[in-house]
Amino acid sequence: xxxxxxxxxxxxxxxxxxxxxxxxxxxxxxxxxxxxxxxxxxxxxxxxxxxxxxxxxxxxxxxxxxxxxxxxxxxxxxxxxxxxxxxxxxxxxxxxxxxxxxxxxxxxxxxxxxxxxxxxxxxxxxxxxxxxxxxxxxxxxxxxxxxxxxxxxxxxxxxxxxxxxxxxxxxxxxxxxxxxxxxxxxxxxxxxxxxxxxxxxxxxxxxxxxxxxxxxxxxxxxxxxxxxx
Length: 229
Description:
Oligomer: single chain
Low-confidence stretches: none
Distance between the termini: 88 Å
Number of domains: 1
């Protein structure tokens, strides 16, 4: 089914904004020696992108976007495997963390594959937005559990929200197949709400961390020795 130019324009913006989000996550992850995407969300993301880039590929534009996202998510996966164990003291041993992560990834892919096969007939739109809603909630949960901006940033919050908003407009407003879908309207609204709450929480935590830095005692400046005359 041929879509109009507004659909492709919004979809192109979605691709660029999400690539930018992934680059920002990778940059912050290495800077803070942390992972910047919730682990369950990462497993779901990689699974969905693999499914619709290689198993049930979209048309040319969407497929290339999925391939690009998948490749960037492999780098994010590497940061999760490298820095993830330190965030879970109870299962800090890598011999425990890695098998658990592999199991979650396998279950995530199986779930995406079965949903695509039996509920969406390979389309992937509803599963994609449902996965994005899960990810938006998990980003907020990660922020609240860490109680710091480690692995996260305001730029990530805003660009991520903008990317998903463009996708929402592309499918709900311009797609001939999904325009006016009640389920899609619910998913898009819920995602936007979660993203706005996340942005507000990042702003609040950033302000709080700035106030703590201002209140922290500063070391006195070293006194210079008097100049000899």
